[in-house]
Amino acid sequence: MQLTKQHIADANGNLKGHQADYYYLSQKLIDQGVDVDALVQKVADFQVAIPSWALGAGGTRFGRFSFHGEPGNLEQKIGDVGILHALTQTAGAVSLHIPWDTPTDYAAVKQIADQNGIVFDAINSNTFQDQPGTKHSYKHGSLANSDEAIRAQAVAHNNEVVRIGEKLGSKTLTIWLADGTSFPGQRSFQKALSQTEKSCKEIYGELPQDWSLLIEYKPYEPNFYSTVIMDWGTSFMLANACGDRAYTLVDLGHHLPNSNIEQVVATLMSKGKLGGFHFNDSKYGDDDLTVGSIKPYALFLIFNELVYGMANNPQNPDLAWMIDASHNIKDPLEDLLQSLEAIQEAYAKALLIDQKALEAAQLNHDVVKCQEILQGAYRTDVRPLLQKARLNGGGALNPIEAYRSLKVREGLIGERGKHTVATGL
Amino acid sequence: MQLTKQHIADANGNLKGHQADYYYLSQKLIDQGVDVDALVQKVADFQVAIPSWALGAGGTRFGRFSFHGEPGNLEQKIGDVGILHALTQTAGAVSLHIPWDTPTDYAAVKQIADQNGIVFDAINSNTFQDQPGTKHSYKHGSLANSDEAIRAQAVAHNNEVVRIGEKLGSKTLTIWLADGTSFPGQRSFQKALSQTEKSCKEIYGELPQDWSLLIEYKPYEPNFYSTVIMDWGTSFMLANACGDRAYTLVDLGHHLPNSNIEQVVATLMSKGKLGGFHFNDSKYGDDDLTVGSIKPYALFLIFNELVYGMANNPQNPDLAWMIDASHNIKDPLEDLLQSLEAIQEAYAKALLIDQKALEAAQLNHDVVKCQEILQGAYRTDVRPLLQKARLNGGGALNPIEAYRSLKVREGLIGERGKHTVATGL
Amino acid sequence: MQLTKQHIADANGNLKGHQADYYYLSQKLIDQGVDVDALVQKVADFQVAIPSWALGAGGTRFGRFSFHGEPGNLEQKIGDVGILHALTQTAGAVSLHIPWDTPTDYAAVKQIADQNGIVFDAINSNTFQDQPGTKHSYKHGSLANSDEAIRAQAVAHNNEVVRIGEKLGSKTLTIWLADGTSFPGQRSFQKALSQTEKSCKEIYGELPQDWSLLIEYKPYEPNFYSTVIMDWGTSFMLANACGDRAYTLVDLGHHLPNSNIEQVVATLMSKGKLGGFHFNDSKYGDDDLTVGSIKPYALFLIFNELVYGMANNPQNPDLAWMIDASHNIKDPLEDLLQSLEAIQEAYAKALLIDQKALEAAQLNHDVVKCQEILQGAYRTDVRPLLQKARLNGGGALNPIEAYRSLKVREGLIGERGKHTVATGL
Amino acid sequence: MQLTKQHIADANGNLKGHQADYYYLSQKLIDQGVDVDALVQKVADFQVAIPSWALGAGGTRFGRFSFHGEPGNLEQKIGDVGILHALTQTAGAVSLHIPWDTPTDYAAVKQIADQNGIVFDAINSNTFQDQPGTKHSYKHGSLANSDEAIRAQAVAHNNEVVRIGEKLGSKTLTIWLADGTSFPGQRSFQKALSQTEKSCKEIYGELPQDWSLLIEYKPYEPNFYSTVIMDWGTSFMLANACGDRAYTLVDLGHHLPNSNIEQVVATLMSKGKLGGFHFNDSKYGDDDLTVGSIKPYALFLIFNELVYGMANNPQNPDLAWMIDASHNIKDPLEDLLQSLEAIQEAYAKALLIDQKALEAAQLNHDVVKCQEILQGAYRTDVRPLLQKARLNGGGALNPIEAYRSLKVREGLIGERGKHTVATGL
């Protein structure tokens, strides 16, 4: 099932209401000195990768409820990303997970991606599960393992993932390392860290010259007492040990309660070491909920730092953006549409912040004014701007409404059947 | 310093921009079926009490930075509330704290309140500090104390507070009980709870027939291992033990990390036991920050439950609303203006939720739609509605701008001098 | 594989070292006024149920690493509990989970239990997963569902579980209700609560007269925004609504960060409403780690309240004790042996607290002394007492050493093969 | 009031009970291969500094309850430390806070310290409060301030503190920087960090060659939205920017909920960057409770890493140990005695861990055995070892009992009067 621009235009119907809204808002913003066209273009240029493992229903350790019409292979997954991109014009990339999505026919996979306007973003390795046929188990660790043979297997897997990525046009390897312990004393913290540093350096050493390495961190889960790469400080230290093309990746859900994530973002960008970003939302832990569904103001504050850094930190690379959520009770595609909207909304609002006025208020220690400036941007209803950005590219006025009126899920069920199960979590 | 309607009208200046915004928004909302006039009226009718102890600079255990022109007595405090109310038309009540604000001349105090359109809302006792001249120390507890003489002194103080409140027209006593322990074993949990229940019943027994008792809860601070009334469950149990006119009071800052406060609100209202609400915001603990400055979406979700309960729970009483924040680095009056705006904003957005559509989506298990409905209301820029509500009552278009252009703080410093220090925390 | 007393006696070997330790410690305690024999007897009498789902390897949503020799059916599970009981003399009960462990041959199951000295403790229903062949899905809730047919199915399942339990001699039904929401607005809190109350009452109404109902609470997971029975207050309210034989069940892992669980225990016991207890330990959330492996002092403080309540709260029923942990990286039986040891240790230390001296210090507000008394008990090395209690019953001096020297796991693998997978989580 | 060895020996009375306990325990440990004499010597050699601000009653923002006989000047404070050291033989250092404890007569202060066997450990600056007579206010920051004059004043204060410390024999400056923000947008994270780095380098540049700089971190309080040096990663980055003699200081209470502090300790020691340690305990936040009163097992796990690092990380310097607690409801001296006991206990238990056996179990992935080894050490009652270490130096068998029987507090009240108030928090 592929959505043409005509399908979407039909679903959009009459645009008069939107045009009035956009006219009203853009006039107000222009009066405030905002370059609205440039802002809309920035929103339109912002492209977020969809992970290949997030197109089916997710679950918890307590079980999983099935969903219908899930993609049964990589080609179908890319087709799903294509649907999202057609509707939103902001999902023009896919992020693969190996071995769940190892291509069998590279040419076919690339062709489908091309047809859908999808590129291959960061590629992800997996050393937190045992795969059929692998020699050693990762039960007691992979890149951090004290057992040299297991560690070598995990390094080799990462190298293999890079070779797969090269064939698809990826330029970035993301390592999320689950290694850690569930009980005090189970492992020497110092040795686990030094093994991990050694492994990261080996992987980095094998990277093609135009590739980057992203090192993710997480405080807990699936290990419940310690994780080797537990926080940004540890990831930053490892990235520095590897070299110039190694960076930290921030996943919104991978923090202890009450963490100030925006400050972490600012710190890493100022040091030129923020390489990637995983979007999701959460209330309790790594809940992997729809972006913006719980703490949208925190997301806006994070985007404020990202916008500032993208403008003022030439030392920092372009970032790899990805959604990393789990779709346990919603249609995965609808869930992702909501996430994409929330990301664009936060980005657009952050772009509305008058950085000069903010800096002046900060230097003047006018705390009340600083808050007024941030809240002034945040309270603005930017939906007409997002619609404009989508419409400019041939996307949907209201993606979820279009998705439903075009009966996309019904079409997918028709093509794939009810009971396919997507690979992944 | 008293702000007249003329002062404020002058500060408002030309209203054309507002009128255009209001017209645009109200037309859109009317098209969606919203009764905009009724909504504006509800916002205008919503009155929040200002606590008498929050008009000066607050501090932490690490110190306090002074602020200029603080009110030096109760009359000046009420004058400050009058300024807030004149500007916002939503702060028409004051909540006194005894003994910090015991009136010396009741007639004078009432006259000043009348002049400023301020009524006396819930009155607060203090048994967490020792006052000069009191016989017994509360170092080891007050209403929960095992020592009968100390407990009796604390009960008597509460009775005295009620008598003071009666003279001013209050109808509600709020008890925030700091009693607890800082070390395991320091006190029997069971005995502390039963003493507290006994004390609450005694206080309740002495209440005038038209008075209510509000019982606040808090997990920790100033005690750091346990607090006798630690959560809503404990408060609810005590309120039930007292009787029909005893209720739980929810303070937004008094919860463990990640608590779902909106669910607590819904639970208490369904049982007819939510009696009061203290507004503030926080990132880490009981930080007592400006309302809406950290988690505005959570505030909106809480107002969604409040709006639902006010419409559907006749068993629940009218609520006592109060701001309970600390103003450590902002001008206290500006800080309160920001809080009042945030409260009205959350209320107005909650009123925009289409409850019928929401219920239908809920019954249909359409989780995506439920979220769309909530976010649709939240993403609306309701500032023109709040302005309309203020202007209808003679308030300021933009309260902080008016406060600054009218040089209110400068006027207060002129009247009071720089170095007064308000009583309270 | 069944461990005879002779097997264990052989593994114990020479007891001289133990006897010397026991003599030294018991003399010291007798000098302090402790009735050591009575204490040892209390420890010996303390029996903890093993849940039938915890005898195989557990996992997380990120995967599961297999373990060898897992029990493949209910009979083998009871055999595993028999091994634990033979070694420790403190695991004389099993807690079944339906439908994972629905007996096919009741007589055979009861016979095996009898042979192993195992009784059937509280029985558990499951309405958080869909089972093959059931008509309705619990994806959107069970006992709290707005859909009457689904709710009725869930109630009927609970009634069926009771009928199964009756045949085995159980007297208690435990409900852990996963119902909740993952997104704001997904469900009306008030309606979900009232549906749940209705369902609990229906189940309670069908209970045999000599049965009790235990209502568990949990703040989050598998739902990530709200859980209907989120805390002790909600469970307590529901238990009160049901009647005298309905109680709250406390699971150590089901609390928000920093919760004071011992205070919850004390509160519930003082009101006669603590019915059951699930042991585990955790650092971050519901990590389900080995009891006592992370916060043993907190466990001791909780036991202090349990000991106090068992002695002073005749209004509270006998408690149903159970371990509820997940064994992701340890041999499940060894993990349970460590948990059982930690429980007995905390209980024995709590029994050592001089309650009269503690009360005197509390009444005297001697906070330092209170702490000295608690720490004095806690710092005592009580292992000789636990050994004595085990040896008196024919158990192992050191259960894990005996388990290993008797090659129990190897025996189980020999009987069952490597690749059985136990039902359950 | 000075305690002589004779006073203490009298208070100790008959040592037969201790000797029997020590004999029993040491024989057991010798059988396990422990060099008991060496262990006792290590415990005896471990010296912890007492901060000069912790000898009076502390409080919270809600108030402070007075205590009697507090030291009224620096000489009396050192006298109090002398009492602690005489009783425990483990408190042979004091850590001063400037300007609270700026000496007026250096010779006299040094003489009193000498008489009491007290040396001057790390010295602390204060730029989180305004002092009478200083030109600029730190309300909006000190070392991180955007205002150059304020920043320079804060740097100069630190330089001045070093000059004071030089006269007393200190070799270490500790910076705890409260700078941060209470509201989003209040300050540029990037600029605050770079200003702080600049200030730290300036201070470091002025340090004498034999001095070290310790940089403390803290996530929140007194600022409630962000702190410039928020975590170990930020402190580590700053220490690296300064140079070889700049290190991170870990305060147990300065972490987000659920932090794995022992892993932070291990990481810093492996990189040679852990310079100091502040002991306290907490349940909710920076509660500053008695060491070991809430989470003694976590303290033991931290000491396990410290012991490992002290033995295996020659790249790491000797650490500055200090207690940093607040004494709100206990006699400060008794509270510190309890803290000192808890520190020694955790250290002694950590020394009991069989590191070779632990490493073997780790390499063998024997998670159960690892836990057994740690718990085996932890469950040992080491009090006789601590007593032995104290008695060897002429200290008290039971410090608190001696303190009480010698009527130390009564003596201090006699000398100082009831109503002195110590400087500090």
UniProtKB/TrEMBL annotation, chains A, B, C, D:
It comes from the Bacteria. Keywords: Isomerase, Manganese, Metal-binding. The keyword Manganese applies. The keyword Mitochondrion does not apply. GO terms for molecular function: L-rhamnose isomerase activity. Its EC number is 5.3.1.-, 5.3.1.14. This is L-rhamnose isomerase/sugar isomerase. It comes from Neolewinella antarctica.
